[in-house]
């Protein structure tokens, strides 16, 4: 027998500017009628009040909506601001769904085909007998859907009742675009770069959160059990399930939590629209869930409140939760998978494949297969890829140090040099010490660092490397285990194929003048290890085995994860502890739970001396080229709080390697040329009024004192800049644990 089909249209009421979605009569005794009145979101700020003989016996705020329980001679009267009116109470229609296993769902553009497949799945696998579908279409725009749905019900054996409810007032949020747009996809990448359409409350994510209480009182109070899922959700079959359905379990416990996970197609075939059966993937690194519920209305207290994600006042056991899948290709039709989720996060799920193939008889597009990487543990040659501009005086020490700890290859990209940096690298290439390339950023339209990394991917020195790291000439790998070499680090980290090297920010140690002496000997003052602020303090760079786990090079870590290989990643932090899987795709800085310095750190000498910083500011940045390296940068990066000389145990090996290199007269002459050019540039800059003033500020007593107080400042202070710190806090004694921050309105441009 075909299921009974009901289409019920609900008209809103108004009292002044306030919209009443619906009002439902609940009881009548002794001439007094009780009911619930549900006001829509966006009502006048002045709360409604009873008028005449009407009393409000309860008020409930449900998200941005308000529900009031009234007691009055029918009909109730209310006042909203300067307006008053009577409210018509609709009769409850509990008989429609009485005693039935009912799903409560919202339709937001889904087709009749999807709806019918959704109904059939839950009738077949979960004992559902009825559905209440809230169709969010505008009145008159769903006639074809209703006809197709009604016609298709005859093919679903066991389904008894379908009720489609339609409101003439939008139920979505008034500040968001259509829910179908990628901006409303929770996992969509690049939201900060999206062009966001205008708000559309008819199709936006649900905003009228009082709707669940409204539907409870109007239709659902006598249902055997109600499962709140959408037309894009399928309740999954529990591995331990026997004949007991989620509706049966709700009868026993009152409420069963429903816990959902987003699932995705790998790709939908050209010319076809997404279907449940196209979804065979989930994210490997997302453990967050969508919480919903299944409630037996007459098994829980009447004082419970039905909300979006929980039944307030009911006791639930999350360990007994029923899983469901949310099919995201159906929620965001017409958009490619990569627009709604990073494809590098997707892996195939055998349970989803079984649903597609066994239930829907469909062969979804599968992920490409990749062979597990083969690791040659004897192949440990390290290649550094780097970019430089006007770094001449610092090249030799940096190369000598890293050769001393075991780096074999350097791939250097330079651009727009005026101090001999490019000529120096041409010479070093001729001597077989580095490989030097001109940075192709002008032809690519990319920033210099990104252009270099893209070009470097094609170089044999990268392709054939055992390990690769992208790092700058002001960064030094500080191995703290064994004899301080990279070989000792690899021994200590076992079978790791990625190692994060967290920055330790080193300041200028109150050194103002440039001297041609080792950085590692001159600058020993730094931030404490547990320095969570500023945001950059725990940035990291990553040593990684070049075995195909990722598609391309990145500034802080390789990028473009091949998700099929995520389980082959063995990524450790600087203490040798495993990094969590949620860092595998995008992380660029450590957190309190992932920071580690026990085995290795990356000493970051971002400012050096005050004089050299003038040249750095004039030169500009290789990545964030549009940002000035001014006083705010110096303030954030100049940490002179504590001292760390652990890297100096390599000084004898460093000096020996530098002496060996400087025995070559051409190398020695080129180094002197770069040092001279650096000094000349410093003098030229200090001769200009703006740089003279800037140098005076950098070397002031105020800035020197600030560099020793940075752990005591909140994040907003580093965004706003040094001027927000009061003088008395700098020049007067403060408790060692004092803390200072400011509001975001003080934020200054970098």
UniProtKB/TrEMBL annotation:
Q: What is its main location?
A: membrane
- Compartment list: Membrane
**Entry GO MF terms:** glycosyltransferase activity
Q: Name one GO cellular component term.
A: membrane
Q: Its topology with respect to the membrane?
A: Single-pass membrane protein
Task: List the keywords (alphabetical).
Answer: Membrane, Transferase, Transmembrane, Transmembrane helix
Family matches, as PANTHER family: GLYCOSYLTRANSFERASE FAMILY 92 PROTEIN
Name of the protein: Glycosyl transferase family 2
Organism equals Cognatishimia maritima
């Amino acid at each position: 027998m075909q299921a009974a089909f009901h289409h019920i249209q609900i008209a809103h009421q108004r009292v002044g500017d306030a919209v009443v979605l619906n009002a439902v009569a609940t009881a009548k005794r002794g001439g007094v009628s009780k009911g619930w009145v549900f006001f829509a979101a966006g009502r006048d700020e002045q709360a409604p009040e009873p008028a005449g003989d009407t009393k409000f016996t309860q008020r409930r705020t449900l998200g941005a909506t308000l529900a009031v329980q009234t007691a009055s001679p029918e009909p109730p009267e209310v006042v909203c601001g300067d307006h008053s009116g009577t409210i018509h109470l609709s009769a409850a229609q509990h008989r429609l769904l009485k005693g039935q296993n009912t799903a409560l769902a919202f339709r937001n553009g889904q087709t009749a085909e999807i709806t019918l497949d959704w109904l059939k799945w839950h009738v077949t696998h979960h004992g559902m007998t009825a559905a209440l579908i809230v169709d969010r279409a505008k009145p008159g725009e769903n006639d074809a859907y209703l006809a197709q749905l009604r016609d298709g019900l005859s093919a679903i054996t066991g389904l008894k009742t379908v009720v489609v409810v339609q409101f003439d007032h939008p139920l979505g949020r008034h500040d968001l675009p259509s829910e179908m747009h990628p901006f409303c996809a929770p996992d969509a990448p690049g939201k900060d770069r999206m062009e966001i359409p205008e708000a559309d409350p008819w199709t936006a994510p649900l905003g009228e959160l009082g709707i669940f209480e409204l539907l409870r009182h109007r239709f659902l109070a006598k249902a055997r059990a109600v499962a709140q899922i959408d037309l894009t959700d399928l309740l999954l079959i529990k591995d331990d399930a026997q004949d007991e359905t989620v509706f049966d379990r709700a009868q026993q416990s009152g409420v069963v939590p429903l816990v959902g996970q987003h699932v995705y197609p790998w790709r939908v075939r050209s010319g076809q629209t997404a279907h449940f059966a196209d979804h065979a993937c989930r994210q490997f690194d997302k453990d967050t869930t969508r919480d919903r519920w299944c409630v037996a209305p007459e098994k829980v207290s009447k004082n419970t409140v039905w909300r979006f994600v929980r039944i307030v006042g009911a006791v639930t056991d999350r360990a007994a939760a029923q899983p469901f899948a949310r099919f995201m290709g159906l929620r965001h039709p017409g958009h490619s998978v990569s627009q709604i989720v990073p494809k590098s996060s997707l892996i195939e799920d055998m349970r989803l494949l079984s649903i597609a193939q066994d239930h829907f008889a469909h062969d979804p597009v599968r992920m490409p297969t990749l062979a597990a990487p083969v690791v040659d543990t004897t192949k440990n040659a390290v290649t550094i890829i780097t970019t430089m501009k006007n770094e001449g005086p610092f090249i030799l020490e940096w190369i000598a140090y890293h050769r001393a700890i075991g780096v074999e290859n350097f791939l250097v990209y330079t651009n727009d040099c005026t101090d001999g940096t490019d000529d120096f690298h041409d010479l070093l290439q001729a001597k077989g010490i580095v490989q030097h390339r001109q940075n192709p950023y002008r032809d690519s339209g990319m920033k210099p660092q990104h252009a270099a990394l893209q070009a470097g991917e094609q170089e044999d020195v990268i392709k054939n490397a055992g390990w690769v790291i992208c790092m700058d000439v002001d960064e030094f790998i500080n191995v703290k285990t064994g004899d301080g070499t990279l070989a000792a680090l690899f021994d200590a980290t076992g079978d790791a194929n990625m190692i994060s090297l967290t920055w330790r920010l080193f300041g200028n140690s109150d050194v103002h003048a440039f001297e041609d002496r080792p950085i590692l000997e001159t600058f020993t003052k730094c931030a404490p290890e547990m320095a969570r602020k500023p945001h950059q303090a725990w940035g990291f760079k990553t040593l990684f085995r070049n075995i195909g786990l990722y598609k391309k090079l990145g500034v802080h870590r390789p990028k473009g994860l091949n998700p099929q290989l995520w389980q082959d990643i063995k990524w450790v932090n600087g203490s040798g502890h495993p990094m969590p899987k949620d860092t595998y795709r995008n992380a660029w800085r450590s957190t309190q739970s992932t920071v580690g310095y026990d085995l290795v750190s990356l000493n970051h000498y971002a400012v050096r001396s005050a004089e050299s910083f003038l040249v750095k500011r004039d030169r500009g940045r290789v990545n964030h080229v549009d940002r000035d390296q001014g006083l705010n940068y110096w303030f954030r990066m100049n940490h002179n709080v504590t001292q760390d000389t652990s890297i100096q145990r390599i000084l004898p090996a460093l000096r020996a390697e530098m002496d060996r290199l400087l025995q070559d007269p051409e190398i020695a002459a080129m180094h002197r040329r770069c040092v001279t050019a650096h000094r000349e540039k410093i003098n030229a800059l200090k001769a200009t009024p703006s740089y003279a003033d800037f140098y005076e500020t950098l070397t002031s007593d105020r800035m020197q004192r600030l560099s020793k107080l940075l752990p005591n400042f909140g994040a907003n202070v580093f965004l706003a800049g040094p001027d927000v710190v009061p003088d008395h806090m700098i020049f007067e004694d403060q408790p060692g644990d004092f803390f200072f921050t400011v509001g975001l309105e003080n934020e200054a441009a970098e």
